[in-house]
C-alpha cells in the first residue's frame, strides 16, 4: 500500500473497528478482527514509512490499547492478533521517535502501566522506546519501578517478574555491561539468565568470561527446557575460540546425561562442524545397547543411524522391528527405499496397511487405500503383480465385515 493512497482519517476509521465487546462470543467475528488488525498495521506502517508519524501517533496508541483489551476476550489460539499487536507496539515506538517532541513522563507512565497493570501483553521493549523516552522518561520509569518494587506482593509472581524484567531492561539501556550483568545475576534461577549474561559479554568482546558464565549456567541447569539455547551458545563460543575438544565434551556430556536421538544429532552436527567424528562410535554403541535392553528405544536408534548416513543399518533395524519404530518413521524409510529395492519394502508396506486397519482414526480406511495403491505399484516394480492380487484377496476376505473399507477398495479399483 503506497503512502499516497492512505490517510490518517482512513487509519482512524480502521482503528474504530478494533473495539471488542467482552460479552461477545470469543469465536464470533475473530476472522474479521484479525483482518482489521492487519489492515491497521499495514496502513499505519505506510504512513510512518512516509514520515507522517506525527499525524497518526495518537491513533496508534489507541490501536495498541484496543487490541490489548480485545485479546482478553477473543480467541487468539492461532496467535495472529497477538503477532499484530507486537508489530503495532514496535511501530508505535517508531512513530514516537519520529514525532518528537512528546511528554516523556506521560509515555513512561503508560509503559509502566502496560507492564504492571496490563493483562501480560504486549511485551514492552524499552530499547525501542528509548529515543522517545530520553533521559527524563527513563529516569521516570526507574523511579516508578522502584516504587512498584516496594509495593509488589511477595507472593505475586507477575509483579515480581514485571519488576525484574524492567530493572534488567533499564540496566541494559545504561550501556554499562558490568552493571547489566550485576542486575541479571541477582536472579539466576534460569539458564536464560546465564545466556543473557554470556551474550552481553560476547557483545562486549569478552569471550573468555562469556564461556565461563555459560559453563556455570549449564552446570547449575543441565536439563531445563531453556538449557539447549545456552548449550548452543557455549558450543559456538568454544569453537570460535578454537577450543574444539571442549565443545565436543559439552555435547558428549549432554548425550551421556540424556542418550536419545536429539542429543545424538546435536553431537553429530558438532562433530561434522569441527571435522572429528571420533565420539560418534561410542554414542552409537550406547544407543544400540539401550535398544537391546528396551525395544521402545529402537526408534531413537534408527533416527540416530539415519542422521549419520548409516542407511543400511537403519533400514534393517526398522524392517526387523516395524512395530517398535513407529509407523511414521517406517513409512519415511519405506518411501525412500522402494524405488531402488522394491522387493524389500513389500512386508513393511503390508505392516503399514494393517496398522491403519487396526487404528480407530476417522481417515484410517482412506490412508489404507493410499498405501495399497503404492503397494500395488511396488509389487509390479518387483516383478510380482500376482503377489499383490493374492494379498489383496486375502485382505478383503479378512476384513469383509468392514463394509465401508470394502466399498472404498471397490471405488479405488482395488478388486481382485
Structural commentary:
With 416 residues, this protein is mostly helical. It has 22 helices and no strands. Helix 7 (157-173) runs antiparallel to helix 8 (177-184), helix 15 (298-307) runs antiparallel to helix 16 (311-320) and helix 18 (327-337) runs antiparallel to helix 19. The radius of gyration is 30 Å and the shape is flat. It starts with 7 loop residues before the first helix and ends in a 5-residue tail after the last helix.
Order of helices and strands: HHHHHHHHHHHHHHHHHHHHHH
What Rg is obtained from the alpha carbons, in whole angstroms?
Answer: 30 Å
The description of the largest β-sheet is: none
Tell me, what's the shape? flat
Strand portion: under 5%
Span between termini: 60 Å
Alpha-beta classification: mainly alpha
H/I helix tally = 22
Task: Provide a concise account of the structure shown.
The protein has helices at residues 8-16, 30-49, 57-70, 80-98, 104-116, 126-151, 157-173, 177-184, 191-203, 207-220, 227-240, 244-257, 261-274, 278-293, 298-307, 311-320, 322-325, 327-337, 346-357, 364-381, 385-398, 403-411.
Considering the chains and any ligands shown, give keywords for the structure.
416 residues; mainly alpha
Which helices and strands appear, and what pairs or packs with what?
Blueprint: H1 8-16, H2 30-49, H3 57-70, H4 80-98, H5 104-116, H6 126-151, H7 157-173, H8 177-184, H9 191-203, H10 207-220, H11 227-240, H12 244-257, H13 261-274, H14 278-293, H15 298-307, H16 311-320, H17 322-325, H18 327-337, H19 346-357, H20 364-381, H21 385-398, H22 403-411
Helix pairs in contact: 1-2, 1-3, 2-4, 3-4, 4-6, 5-6, 6-7, 7-8, 8-9, 9-10, 9-11, 10-11, 11-12, 12-13, 13-14, 13-15, 14-15, 15-16, 18-19, 19-20, 20-21
Amino acid at each position: 500500500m503506497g503512502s499516497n493512497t492512505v490517510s490518517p482519517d482512513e487509519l482512524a476509521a480502521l482503528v474504530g473497528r478494533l473495539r471488542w465487546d467482552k460479552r461477545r462470543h470469543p469465536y464470533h467475528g475473530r476472522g474479521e478482527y484479525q483482518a482489521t488488525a492487519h489492515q491497521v498495521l499495514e496502513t499505519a506502517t505506510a504512513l510512518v514509512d512516509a514520515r507522517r508519524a506525527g499525524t497518526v501517533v495518537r491513533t496508534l496508541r489507541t490501536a495498541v490499547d484496543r487490541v490489548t483489551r480485545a485479546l482478553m476476550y477473543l480467541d487468539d489460539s492461532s496467535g495472529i492478533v497477538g503477532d499484530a499487536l507486537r508489530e503495532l507496539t514496535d511501530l508505535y515506538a517508531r512513530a514516537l521517535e519520529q514525532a518528537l517532541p512528546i511528554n516523556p513522563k506521560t509515555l513512561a507512565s503508560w509503559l509502566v502501566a502496560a507492564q504492571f497493570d496490563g493483562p501480560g501483553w504486549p511485551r514492552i521493549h524499552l530499547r525501542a522506546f528509548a529515543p522517545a523516552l530520553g533521559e527524563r522518561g527513563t529516569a521516570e520509569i526507574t523511579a516508578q519501578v522502584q516504587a512498584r518494587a516496594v509495593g509488589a506482593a511477595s507472593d505475586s509472581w507477575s509483579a515480581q517478574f514485571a519488576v525484574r524484567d524492567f530493572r534488567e531492561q533499564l540496566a541494559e539501556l545504561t550501556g554499562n555491561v558490568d552493571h547489566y550483568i550485576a542486575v541479571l545475576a541477582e536472579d539466576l534461577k534460569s539458564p536464560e539468565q546465564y545466556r543473557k549474561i554470556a551474550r552481553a559479554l560476547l557483545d562486549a568482546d569478552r569471550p573468555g568470561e562469556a564461556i565461563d558464565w555459560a559453563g556455570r549456567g549449564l552446570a547449575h541447569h543441565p536439563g531445563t527446557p531453556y538449557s539447549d539455547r545456552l548449550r548452543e551458545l557455549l558450543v559456538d563460543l568454544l569453537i570460535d575460540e578454537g577450543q574444539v575438544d571442549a565443545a565436543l565434551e559439552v555435547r558428549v556430556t549432554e548425550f551421556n546425561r540424556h542418550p536419545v536421538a536429539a542429543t545424538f544429532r546435536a553431537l553429530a552436527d558438532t562433530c561434522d562442524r569441527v571435522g572429528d567424528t571420533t565420539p560418534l562410535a561410542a554414542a552409537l554403541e550406547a544407543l544400540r545397547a539401550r535398544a537391546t535392553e528396551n525395544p521402545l528405544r529402537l526408534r531413537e536408534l534408527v533416527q540416530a543411524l539415519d542422521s549419520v548416513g548409516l542407511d543400511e543399518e537403519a533400514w534393517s533395524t526398522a524392517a526387523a522391528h516395524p512395530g517398535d519404530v513407529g509407523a511414521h518413521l517406517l513409512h519415511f524409510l519405506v518411501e525412500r527405499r522402494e524405488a531402488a529395492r522394491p522387493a524389500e519394502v513389500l512386508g513393511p508396506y503390508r505392516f503399514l496397511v494393517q496398522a491403519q486397519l487396526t487404528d480407530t482414526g476417522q481417515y484410517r480406511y482412506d490412508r489404507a487405500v493410499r498405501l495399497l495403491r503404492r503397494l500395488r505399484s511396488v509389487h509390479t516394480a518387483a516383478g510380482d503383480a500376482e503377489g499383490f492380487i493374492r494379498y489383496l484377496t486375502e485382505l478383503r476376505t479378512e476384513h469383509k465385515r468392514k463394509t465401508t473399507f470394502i466399498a472404498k477398495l471397490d471405488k479405488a479399483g482395488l478388486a481382485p
